[in-house]
Amino acid sequence: MGIGICDDHNISMIYSLVDDTQCTFEHKRFFLRWLYVFTGDMVRRQHNESITSLLNLLNNLEQSAQSGELQIWIARSKELIEHPANYTYAYWGLSSEYV
Predict the structure, then answer these.
(1) What pLDDT was estimated at residue 1?
(2) Of residues 84, 72, 97, the one with CA closest to residue 46
(3) Closest residue by Cα to residue 73 from 28, 41, 25, 39
(4) Distance between CA atoms of 81 and 75, rounded to whole angstroms?
(5) How does the average pLDDT of the chain come out, rounded?
(6) Residue of 54, 17, 25, 26 whose CA lies nearest to 38
(7) Of the candidates 75, 64, 53, 76, which has an alpha carbon nearest to the alpha carbon of residue 6?
């Protein structure tokens, strides 16, 4: 059973797995890639309601981020939302070079 990439209902769970100190390195990398793809998909679609929802979510999650990886993902995601023309598949696609 897979996780739908474009399903924002899963993001809190994915976020918590990346931040979990018990989660293995490989699993964290998988989930972190998911977060980059999720952001990239939302921004690439340019649906204002989805982007506003994502930005609100990022602002809420920012307060609880414990790992540096999550803090960086939040900052990069906000930057991409501000500058959607900077989207590239290499960084926001399935094999994100950020991870």
Answers:
(1) 35
(2) 84
(3) 39
(4) 10
(5) 86
(6) 54
(7) 53
